Amino acid sequence: MYAQQVDTGAKRLKNLEEMSPEERHFQEKVDAEVRIEPKNWMPEGYRKTLIRQISQHAHSEIVGMLPEGNWLTRAPTLKRKLQLMAKIQDEAGHGLYLYSAMETLGADRDEEIEKLHRGEVKFSSIFTYPTLTWADMGAIGWLVDGAAIVNQVPLQRCSYGPYARAMIRVCKEESFHQRQGYEILLTMMREGTDEQKAMVQDAINRFWWPSLMMFGPSDANSPNSAQSMAWKIKRHGNDELRQRFLDQTVPQLEFLGCTAPDPDLKWNEETGHYDFGEIDWQEFFDVLKGHSPCGIERIQQRKSAIDEGRWVRDAAVAYARKQEQKAKSAA
Amino acid sequence: MTNAFSDTRNALAEYLLRLADTDMVLAQRLCEWCGNAPALEEEVAMMNVGLDLLGQARNWYDYAAELLDDGRDADHLAFRRNEREYRNLLIAEQPRGDYAVTTAKQFLFDVWHHLVLSRLTESGDERIAAVAAKALKEATYHRRRSTEWMLRLGQGTEESYRRLSDAVQNLWRFTYELTDTDALEDRLAEAGIGAGNVGDAWRTEVARVFSEAGLEQPEPARHFYMDGKNGKHTEHLGFLLAEMQYLQRAYPDAIW
Question: A273 - beta bridge partners?
Answer without folding.
Answer: A268
